[in-house]
Structure formats: structure tokens, C-alpha cells
Amino acid sequence: VMPGGLCRISDRPDARALSMQRGGRSADVWVATGAAPEPSLLVPDPDQVEIRRDTGALPSRAADNLYWLGRYLERTEATLRLARSLAGQTSDDGPDTGDGPSTRHVADLLAAWGATPFGLDDYAEIVREALGGTSVGAAPQLAREARRTASVVRDRLSPDAWRALADLTAVFPRPSSDRNETVGDVDRDGDEDEADLFAAADLGLRTIAAFTGLAHENMYRPSGWRFLDMGARIERAIAVARYARRLAEPEAGSNLLIRLLELTDSQIVHRARYISGPSVKTVLDLVLLDETHPRSAAFQLDR
What we know:
Blueprint: E1 4-9, E2 25-30, H1 60-87, H2 101-112, H3 123-132, H4 139-152, H5 159-170, H6 176-179, E3 181-183, E4 186-188, H7 194-218, H8 223-247, H9 254-263, H10 267-273, H11 280-289, H12 297-302
Antiparallel strand pairs: 1-2, 3-4
């Protein structure tokens, strides 16, 4: 006999009415005793808690969502880096690397992984689609997927990290289909200028950097954190390999190589090592093979 339990009750004496479909209900049962019971609590006394360091097994659903959270965020960052590079062509706020083959290669990269539709020739329109379009690889769609996966494991993220994800989804312009509107006698087509597009991409990158910093500094490091980090490392290695394959051709000129260094945040370290300017040999060694460079493919694989 337990000191308590759960039972089915009914207002009618007919035993068939105990069925939940026939109006039966469930209720807690308490068994009274004539003597004072010994205290029995499911939660132990704080002074008697045994110290432990493990947090238990990681559910497979949590592992899967943490892994894809890392991948979606890194994929969003890759799209934003390409969009910012294109927006910097004509924006006074951006580092202009010059028009030419490198610009076309960057635009082709965005189309290749579904951030923009194929066939667009206007670079401003390509950036606009990457930052506010509805393609599956556009930055807003990727950011929403990241927040969706994060919502399943929200209890494993700090409040600041969750707010950073909310901020990320708010930095992008509205989709082009929603931007056309007329206010009074003024026709507003919603076309942001290049400086606004560059600023939106730059803000998105800084927001992702904020989330990454919060995750690395505040998130406990059991197996769940490893899945988040593993997803990000795999996705970053893929992006760097794609950059290198497209921009570091055997006969690549300095424009292509400078663009590759820009996309992988490698300009400063390359300039510190080599005073002769970028070459295919030095750039590929830095962005692919250098295990000490946190943006190289080798660093991601080692981690």
C-alpha cells in the first residue's frame, strides 16, 4: 500500500462510468495516518546533496538541434560575408576590392548555395536578395532556422545568447515582395542604398559574433556544447573550401586573392607574414593548411 496515488472517480455508481470517455475523472489519493509520518521528500536536503560534475546523458534530439544550430549560424555568417563583400563594391563604408572577376565569383557563390536566384546581374539586387530574399539559402531564412533549432534547446542557452538570436532575425530588410508600398503621393519601392545593405550585413555579422562569444564564454562544456561547436566547425570548413576553390585558381590575380583573404579574415596575418603581396601559394597555405589560424580549414578539422 502506497501513502498516496492516483485513482479514477465518477459521480455515478455505474462502474462503466469510470471510463474517461464516459465522464470519469482522475484524482490524487492521500492516505491518512494516526501517527506523525517520517519526512520523506523527493528533493534531498541541500546540506546532504552529493557533489557531482556530470549533467547526465544528452538526449539525441538536443544533440541534433545543437549540431544544426551551429551549422545554420555558420552558414548565415558565410552568406553575410559574401553579401557584405559585394555591398562594399559601391558603398563608401565598405572596403572596395575593385570590380572584375572576383566580384562575379562572389555573386556566383551566393547563387550556388541557394542564397539568391540564378541569373541576376545587378550586384545591388543580388545583395538585396541575399539579405532580404525568400530563397532557402538567404540570410533571413537561415537565421530563422537557427532560431527554430535553438528554441528546442533554449534551456541550454543563456538569456543573452537567446536575445542575440532574436536580434539576428531583426537586422534583415523585409523580403522584396513586401517592400513595395505607396505612402501618400510618394512611391516607396523599398530599395535600400548600398551603404544600408553593407551596414545590415555588417550588423548581422557582429550579432553572430556576439552569440558565438556568449556560447564560448558562458555555455557549460559537456557533450551538448561539443555538438554545437562541431556543427559550426564543419560548416566553416565547407565555406572556406568553397571560397578557395572559386577564388584561388592556379592563375588567380591579386584581386581574387585579396577577396579570398577578406572573406576569411586573413588580411592582417598575411600582411604580417609576407611583404611581397598575396600569391596563390601563400594564400592557400594560410586559409587551408595553417592549423594555427582560426579561420583556416585545417584549424576546423583539427578542432
